[in-house]
TrEMBL record:
<dbReference type="Pfam" id="PF16969">
    <property type="entry name" value="SRP68"/>
</dbReference>
<dbReference type="GO" id="GO:0008312">
    <property type="term" value="F:7S RNA binding"/>
</dbReference>
<dbReference type="GO" id="GO:0006614">
    <property type="term" value="P:SRP-dependent cotranslational protein targeting to membrane"/>
</dbReference>
<dbReference type="GO" id="GO:0005783">
    <property type="term" value="C:endoplasmic reticulum"/>
</dbReference>
<dbReference type="GO" id="GO:0005047">
    <property type="term" value="F:signal recognition particle binding"/>
</dbReference>
<dbReference type="GO" id="GO:0005829">
    <property type="term" value="C:cytosol"/>
</dbReference>
<comment type="function">
    <text>Component of the signal recognition particle (SRP) complex, a ribonucleoprotein complex that mediates the cotranslational targeting of secretory and membrane proteins to the endoplasmic reticulum (ER). The SRP complex interacts with the signal sequence in nascent secretory and membrane proteins and directs them to the membrane of the ER.</text>
</comment>
<keyword id="KW-0963">Cytoplasm</keyword>
<keyword id="KW-0539">Nucleus</keyword>
<dbReference type="InterPro" id="IPR038253">
    <property type="entry name" value="SRP68_N_sf"/>
</dbReference>
<comment type="similarity">
    <text>Belongs to the SRP68 family.</text>
</comment>
<keyword id="KW-0694">RNA-binding</keyword>
<keyword id="KW-0733">Signal recognition particle</keyword>
<dbReference type="GO" id="GO:0005786">
    <property type="term" value="C:signal recognition particle, endoplasmic reticulum targeting"/>
</dbReference>
<protein>
    <recommendedName>
        <fullName>Signal recognition particle subunit SRP68</fullName>
    </recommendedName>
</protein>
<keyword id="KW-0687">Ribonucleoprotein</keyword>
<dbReference type="InterPro" id="IPR034652">
    <property type="entry name" value="SRP68-RBD"/>
</dbReference>
Amino acid sequence: MAAEQQNEMKIPQMEENKENSIDGSLGLEILQIIKDSQQQHGLRHGDYQRYRGYCSRRLRRLRKTLGFKMGNRHKFTGKKVTVELLSDNRHLLLVLMEAERAWSYAMQLKQEANTEPRKRFHLLARLRKAAKHGEQLEKLCESHRVDAKTKLEAQAYTAYLNGMVQFELQEWKSAMEAFNKCKTIYEKLASAFTEEQAVLYHQRVEEISPNIRYCAYNIGDQNAINDLMQMRLSAGGGGGMMAEKLEALITQTRAKQAAVMSEVEWRGRTVPVKIDKARIFLLGLADNEAAIIQADNEETKERLYESLLAECRDTIQAVREELRTDVKQRERAAEGADSGKVSNLQYLHSYLTYIKLWTVVRRNESMAHALQAKLKEPQTDENKRGPRPQDLIRLYDIILQGCNCSHGLVRIVVLGSLFLCFYIAQSYVLVKKWSEALVLYERVLKYTREVQSKAKSFNNSLKDLPDVQELIAEVSAEKYSLQAAPLSDRLDNFRLDPTLLSKQPNLVQFPPDFQPIPCKPLFFDLALNHVAFPPLDDKVEQKGKGGITGYFRGFFGFGS
């Protein structure tokens, strides 16, 4: 804590020194200051209480530095920063920190209000106070002593806080107007500076956009729900102020759509869907899959897969509970055991299980592709452990275990088998087991030839396999490199071999000859039984028979 406070002392001083404008007017990088402070003091991990404590300590330092005391230890005397007192940009920073402290306390209460609803009243009071401090900052910035950029940032900051208050009060129209004002100012500021300086403003605009679309939807714009769903999916179900509201809104919208959904078709059989949770999940399945396809990076894609799997598990659990409680279903299953027909609820459970299995396989396949790309990249940091072929062996083994050879999973089974064999060979190469690796490379080439020859029998599912073509080229290169590896043992000896110029050169002897190696010696102590040890009688203490005379001799110290 002491080290953290020392860092806090250094950072504000640097900021305050660079905030004065060249022409002598007062300036304050409002957005830059609050973003840096939030990221360095808790908000990177959502710890609003820590950030609130930082704001309090910084306020205390600023008041002490400026001599802006609020009474003494016995009596509190309220004191406000006025335009007449405005002689230093730290007066503006003082008001900004008061607003940030109230805002962080409100966000802390918002987290706690999930389990304690009464704290919502306190939350609204803190937000109103933060907005009040923001308005005070805006009025101070109207002074001719403050530069134009600071005035605009103060207006945008105040509009944001007012929008937050109206948003929590569910005054959607007022909140939307405030957020739009904030967005417009930041967009104008971004257009007035270079790209590097405009990055922070663009980030702020992206943070505000979900709030605006949410307000628009509640006002009556039905098209806004598509944008909100895309924002939520692209974020991978991450946290944030809007996360819970977006989840509730999307669930509510899907519930309305689920009212008209009554059945689903799978493998030529139509099954009625009567469970609401299953309807909502099946309606959102296409949106989730579309978001996964459009994901920008592997990290986002992995978060989307985890979110989809969590929803799928919850839906399967709901169907399983319905199966347990449905007594009539059990009776029908017992009566129809001879016919062999699966009930609708059991068939729906099988369909959801298939979706879960298929999603897990695709998730693992995506992770395998990411690991393959990292494996091909050169390692710059030797101390950092990079991916190894063993990691891919384990991953492809899991993929094959989760795949039944159904028509939808044939392609993944084939590719998984090929890559599993390939990376096992790679692992043998790392430990210099050349013969085992060479045999496995030959097996990979054999499997790829079989895949190419039998591709037509799989209903065109294996015709377009660029991964197989790349694998053939890579295995061929690895094979030639492996065959040349043992030649390093005789680089100093030239040997003219005519077979090396033939179509089938014999570079190495395979299998290699056995070589004698020294065995670990065993030692047995056989001489011990034949050794005659010398007598030790003279060394052993003899107990004399001196009686009481000997006792007195030893007692007085003579005769020993």
